[in-house]
Amino acid sequence: MTLPAGNHSKEELAKFRSIFDLYYETIRSFAYYKTGDVDLADDIVQEVFLKLWSNLKDVKEETVKALLYTIASNTIKNHFKHQKVVFNFQKQDQNNNTEDEADSSLRQEELNRKLQDALAEIPEKAREVFLMNRIEGLTYVDIAERLGLSVKAIEKRMSEALSILRSRISYKI
Predict the structure, then answer these.
(1) pTM of the model as a whole
(2) How far apart are the C-alpha atoms of 155 and 172, rounded to whole Å?
(3) Which domains, ranges and CATH numbers included, belong to the chain?
């Protein structure tokens, strides 16, 4: 473990090294037991010893073991609290997305219902032209050839269909 620079004496460095060598494996085992994750246990042990290093001047040798376990326990608790917050946020975000999708689905259903009702109100000849153009994708020329009508007649029927649809639903077609 590489220690951060600081105003520590050689004696303090030796003190830290002896504490580290003595307790590293037991604190790591404790962290692994509590988390069940080797990588997380290693991260927690690193945090524990960094906190110890930062407060080394205030540490008493007779309480160092209890201090290390306390720091480890608190670090683990903080980690899981953070994970819970992240999980709740993700869950809330998913719920919001689900609600948005449900709203969108309802709006789409409403629009489809309005469209079906409006289509039913269009006269048969105009509806036929509209469906051939918008559903089958035929051009006015193709529709005119199929129905044996002029392109102008097709344009007039399409205009009639669109006019009725626009008046029945507030959605630009």
Answers:
(1) 0.49
(2) 18
(3) 10-90 (1.10.1740.10), 122-168 (1.10.10.10)
pLDDT at 173: 46
Cβ atoms of 130 and 161 within 8 Å: the answer is: yes
- Give the pLDDT band (50/70/90) at residue 11: confident
Q: How far apart are alpha carbons 141 and 130 in whole angstroms? A: 13
Q: How far is CA 44 from CA 4, 82, 152, 161, 167, in A?
A: 17, 14, 79, 70, 66
Whether residue 5 has pLDDT greater than 90: no
Q: Can you tell me the mean pLDDT for 127-135?
A: 88
Percentages of the chain per state (helix, strand, coil), in multiples of 5: 85, 0, 15
Angstrom CA distances, 143 to 16, 101, 168, stand at: 89, 37, 25
What b/e string do you get for 80-112 counting C-beta neighbours within 10 Å, with b at 16 or more? eeeeeeeeeeeeeeeeeeeeeeeeeeeeeeeee
Q: Which tokens hold the place of 7? A: 């105003």
pLDDT given for residue 165 in this prediction: 85
